């Protein structure tokens, strides 16, 4: 039987803060890779050690700008051309996931395009977390390990020891996620029904369910401009809620998000470190996913089941 391929872990430029935590949890050194920048903005990636015959894990979230995604593509291509045995892209935050279907005429399905580009570059497997739409896994013809932040959020919610707890979905699309949490935690659920005329703009919102004298936790896969979260929190407090907290996996936090959260009725907002925070905030707390990804990488490398990584 041939010897097992060695494991090597590398990080993209903008996700090194998380890759260092993951490698520390795994008890492994990050591999050496450099990014060469040209004066016109073009860049090139180069491995500074051999990856021939290695099981290569590339850690890179593809949050804006698109340079992060293109850097990942070039890392994959370089590893393939350097004769890596297997190439696994570890993408804590999968960018362009909101473009998962044609919701109006003459638009692209960006998530499918991203999947095709990753496959064409030569990746053998994807490890990601809390995709905006579950069906994106089907855009790939390679294995996709889809992790959930529930394994981090559920224990943390329990530690809060909140009485009269209610789980809330910020929109109809998130009811499945909220319902799963509610069943697991044995709590009621409410839904925020919103109407948008265009992206990032909420025209109307209504709360479906009872929040009076309840401690509410709003769950979502990401916070972008924070318009939905903060508006929902304000309406719930007006309807008699004791407190409103939010848990969201990916802290996109663009535009006026930080100011909206600071000036909102939200008591606390918990996010993961799949995306680095642009600045600190008294209300925003970070829960690390490093241990979750470290254990998953180890299980994938050793051909073990990852089902034990899921709480719900």
UniProtKB/TrEMBL annotation:
Keyword Glycosyltransferase included in the entry's annotation: no
Superkingdom field: Bacteria
Pfam families noted in UniProt: Pribosyl_synth (PF14572), Pribosyltran_N (PF13793)
Entries under PROSITE patterns matching the protein: PRPP_SYNTHASE
Gene Ontology molecular function: ATP binding; kinase activity; magnesium ion binding; ribose phosphate diphosphokinase activity
InterPro entries, per database record: PRib_PP_synth_CS, Pribosyltran_N, PRTase-like, PRTase_dom, Rib-P_diPkinase
GO cellular component, one term: cytoplasm
Ribose-phosphate pyrophosphokinase N-terminal domain: residues covered: 7-122
Reaction(s) catalysed (UniProt annotation): D-ribose 5-phosphate + ATP = 5-phospho-alpha-D-ribose 1-diphosphate + AMP + H(+)
The protein's Enzyme Commission number: 2.7.6.1
Biological process according to GO: 5-phosphoribose 1-diphosphate biosynthetic process; purine nucleotide biosynthetic process; ribonucleoside monophosphate biosynthetic process
Keywords, in A-Z order: ATP-binding, Kinase, Magnesium, Metal-binding, Nucleotide biosynthesis, Nucleotide-binding, Transferase
NCBIfam families cross-referenced by the UniProt entry: PRK01259.1 (NF002320), ribP_PPkin (TIGR01251)
Name this polypeptide is given: ribose-phosphate diphosphokinase
Lineage: Bacteria, Pseudomonadati, Bacteroidota, Bacteroidia, Marinilabiliales
